[in-house]
């Protein structure tokens, strides 16, 4: 039986020295990090399509932010309702060769409208400190990639059991939001904000493994799956941005009070 190591991202090139003692020097193995052999070839191809589509949606959202901030499509409330309509429309379409281009158009429109809807928040963050947006973007990328790799490398689909917990957490957040409409409590707002951040991370794990499981069962609608991850990523980015913006404003208030 071959001897394995408990650290899959590191490769012991020489496990033993010439004197027979174990060699404790480990080398980082990039091939192991990018090894998705635990996934079926068709699932790997499906995931490539999903993340390519996700990248395209992210670019469309960036375009929407630019167009809105440039004053050409500065209708955030209208864009919010438009994104809901296109999302429902996309999920109601059967994905096949004839509807593929329509699905591409719908996810692109959804991402574009989402960017327009987010532009006021991003514009506010830029006016406070432009570095906040860059930091939020980097943190979102790092967290999203780490949680995605964690979900993909886990052979047993244990994160699928998070569905019930995430659903309960989402219901609690909705209840807190309704309560805060009347209470206007900063404590409830903070609880909702940080709870939502944890739930957003959980949904990245859950949706990634859900996509893999659906692909194993023959569901190859990579446009719809990309939209799921896009929603998770946007939710994560917004909450990180609000937290950074809130912390920056708190620091400014403390410095002004001195």
Structure in words:
Its main location: membrane. It is found in: Membrane. It is a single chain. This protein is an all-alpha fold. It has one domain (41-248). The protein is built from eight helices and two strands, in the order ββαααααααα. The radius of gyration is 22 Å and the shape is globular.
Short description:
The protein is mainly alpha-helical and 258 residues long. It contains 8 helices and 2 strands. It starts with 9 loop residues before the first strand and ends with a helix.
Q: What number of domains?
A: 1
Which percent range describes the beta-strand content?
under 5%
Q: Report helical residue fraction.
A: over 70%
- State the helix count: 8
Shape: globular
Strand order of the largest sheet: 1-2
List the uncertain runs.
Answer: 1-21
Would you spell out the secondary-structure blueprint of this structure?
Layout: E1 10-11, E2 27-28, H1 30-33, H2 41-69, H3 76-91, H4 100-128, H5 130-153, H6 162-183, H7 186-216, H8 222-257
Antiparallel strand pairs: 1-2
Helix pairs in contact: 2-4, 2-7, 2-8, 3-4, 4-5, 4-8, 5-7, 5-8, 6-7, 7-8
